[in-house]
Amino acid sequence: MLLLPNFHAFENETVVVLSDYAGDAGGDYLVYSFLLCSWNLSGQFSDWLAKARGRFPIGSREINFKNLSRTGQREILPEMLQKADLGLVGYVLTVAVEKQIASLFDNWDGNPKKRLAQLLKDHDVTDLKPNVAEKFLRVNHILAYLLKQLARPPAQKVWWITDNDDICAKPTLIEATMQFQNRLIGLHQSPIDRLAFSTQRGFEKGPIEGLLSIPDLAAGAVCEALNLLGQDSFDVPPWKDGAGWLTDWLNHQGAALKKSTCLISKAGTGEVKVSTLTFSPKPKPDWPGGTRMFDIVRHR
Fold this sequence. Notes:
eight-stranded mixed sheet; 8 strands; 36% helix
């Protein structure tokens, strides 16, 4: 049983949402990862990370999946993930979607993403390119679902910070995203008192940067695992340094931080199926450095 966090515990007033995405550059999957945590209780993790930067040769550089092979990033990762499990009262949801799925919001005939972009424009929501319009809807609806499931009365404030992305590449898109999420909050009748929305710009240093690393690492690890290793099993040479730590971490629930990983895959013409994913380690002692491979197990 997955025990979800209580965002009202210890008089927490604000739920901070950090989101990051992977897969746009290539591969067979698009991945969306969200960390929701109690902002008032996140100081312990942020303080630890600030001090740990002095013990590991990373300086002020951002900790992210792309840079895991850099000196210091791989070394800090195990302790960082452990501290997140213990110090962040929150939930990480990572959703991977097969690129074969043309749209999650329209039938697949013709060009559904183009139709969605036109629909958003016609209803004065925002003006986006077709691929960006589909992503805009996916990200907003996943978050709205999470807030509906996790938010409880009395109403709380939500502060959403996203990775720099095409869905919010300029101020008008930032405003459009916040307004659309407010519409969804109202539609779901979620107990949210106030929503603030911003991008990563301006938070490259400090506690927010450390929290943003969590969905970045989760999205990158799941995307690489699925792309390199297939949906069911794999037997390939070693993958990115440190990625094994991340799949192990995603498999296990922390004392305070809970996690789920889902895959939305094509089930037939115009149909999809949703599975939860776990990564089962299998030793490969013949690989350099004792690198392990994993089976990716789908639970329907």
